[in-house]
Amino acid sequence: MGEDGGVSTRAWTAPTAPRPVRAVVAVPGSKSMTNRALVLAALADGPSTVTGALRSRDTDLMIAALRALGTGITEADSATTLHVVPGPIRGAHIDCGLAGTVMRFVPPLAALADADVQFDGDEQARTRPQATLLDGLRGLGVRVDGDRLPFTVHARGEVPGGTVTIDASGSSQFVSGLLLSAARFDAGVTVRHDGPPVPSLPHIDMTVAMLRRAGVTVEIAHRHGAPSEWTVKPGAVRAVDWVVEPDLSNATPFLAAAAVTGGEVTVPHWPAETTQAGDAIRAILTDMGADVRRTDAGLTVRGPGELLGLDVDLHDVGELAPTVTALAALATTPSTLRGIAHLRGHETDRLAALATEFAGLGGDVTETADGLEIRPSPLHGGPWRAYADHRMATAGAIVGLRVPGIEIDDVATTAKTLPGFDRMWETMLDSSAAHDGSHPEGARTE
Ligand SMILES: O=C(O)C1=C[C@@H](OP(=O)(O)O)[C@@H](O)[C@H](O)C1
Ligand SMILES: C=C(OP(=O)(O)O)C(=O)O
């Protein structure tokens, strides 16, 4: 179990929206960027700062892991501005909680330590796929005991590195994890993928872009039009002052609130260009009939009169599947979500969890080999289990806007990436009510 209090639970009745939601909702920093910036800063050739960092269970677990391994991390003017001073990497015990980014990004860095590093995490994390990463490390000359949490990296101060072939079809994080620390391996690394297509490629693009920004040379080779081999040359990781973008995946439940209530929600500081997978919500909501615009004010979604279902491949953006399933379950026409078999290894088996919880509300959501079929069906209130999955909890909240009596068993689990989600949600609704739907800038949660 996590030692950081992340396992305490709290029940919450999701509030309904008596009128169209009208709000401006600022979301905190990206989990994926924060945890990459922290790892790169810990490996860098000097002190870095990370501005706009997300503070949440997953990022605090990363901070704790890197501190235990010898990195100095202090808060500067605020909790979201972190000063990172690299130090010699030493032996430690690491709690991964349920964070994929901690369990996949930290072991390769820990392999550079001068002593053993032990990893464990939540009970539920012990079933998340991990062997591919650990086999990859073995292929690079590291001794590792175990194939899943708990496991031990027998570090000896250096990693030979070289070429390794893995099947990364289970998670892009296996590739990202090996690449992030590879510049510090003696021979760098070449990761070859051999297997069905790698999911979540934008997340690997983010890894490559951030490595290059830190002065690391990365080369990519393609097979059949898809990247299949990544090479990181050995060399210094330069210290960078990282500025973290808002978390676009965490923005999606708030944008969905506009879509399902025929309202209008703006998320400020939406980047014009980004490697974040969450940016795909723009095309998805447009396909469902919403009006989606990016302006200097941010990204604004205006809900349609009629929310339409869609047929979409979410292979690259599996993180969005719970939000998209909630939207689709409230749409007037059927939907098919494809390309997301790997969601069975996320925080929970998300395909099973979504099908089960919608069935309990009278919904018609069925699992396929690689996704979900969602048919319109009248929904009623009832229990909604979160399965320790932040995005299951936020999906329940979206449904609750239109369906009274959605009893989420654990809203505290949103602290994995968005502590205070329920307060933000309630503020969004309260301010919409204050303006009675007449003013588009009703709520500001900034
Ligand atoms: O590298 C990252 O920051 C992430 C990669 C993706 O993982 P998968 O490739 O396992 O889907 C994504 O779903 C996860 O939330 C974050
Ligand atoms: C899959 C997710 O998280 P993790 O980084 O733990 O894999 C997610 O946030 O949707």
UniProtKB/TrEMBL annotation:
The question of whether Protease is a record keyword is answered with no
Q: What is its main location?
A: cytoplasm
**Molecular-function annotations in GO:** 3-phosphoshikimate 1-carboxyvinyltransferase activity
Which residues does the entry assign to the active site, renumbered to this chain? 319
**Entry-linked Gene3D superfamilies:** Enolpyruvate transferase domain
Tell me, which GO biological process terms does this entry list?
amino acid biosynthetic process; aromatic amino acid family biosynthetic process; chorismate biosynthetic process
Location relative to the cell: Cytoplasm
Residues annotated as binding phosphoenolpyruvate are: 31, 100, 128, 173, 350, 391, 416
Q: What Pfam family does this protein match (any one)?
A: EPSP_synthase
EC number, UniProt record: 2.5.1.19
Can you supply one Gene Ontology CC term for this chain's record?
A: cytoplasm
Q: In which pathway does it act?
A: Metabolic intermediate biosynthesis; chorismate biosynthesis; chorismate from D-erythrose 4-phosphate and phosphoenolpyruvate: step 6/7
As its record notes, the protein acts as a catalyst of: 3-phosphoshikimate + phosphoenolpyruvate = 5-O-(1-carboxyvinyl)-3-phosphoshikimate + phosphate
**Which amino acids does the record list as binding 3-phosphoshikimate?**
31-32, 36, 171-173, 200, 319, 346
Which family is it part of? Belongs to the EPSP synthase family.
**What function does this protein fulfil?**
Catalyzes the transfer of the enolpyruvyl moiety of phosphoenolpyruvate (PEP) to the 5-hydroxyl of shikimate-3-phosphate (S3P) to produce enolpyruvyl shikimate-3-phosphate and inorganic phosphate.
Q: Quote the subunit structure annotation.
A: Monomer.
Task: State the name under which the record lists this protein.
Answer: 3-phosphoshikimate 1-carboxyvinyltransferase
What organism does this protein naturally occur in?
Answer: Rhodococcus rhodnii LMG 5362
Recite the lineage of the species. Bacteria, Bacillati, Actinomycetota, Actinomycetes, Mycobacteriales
This chain is encoded by the gene named: aroA
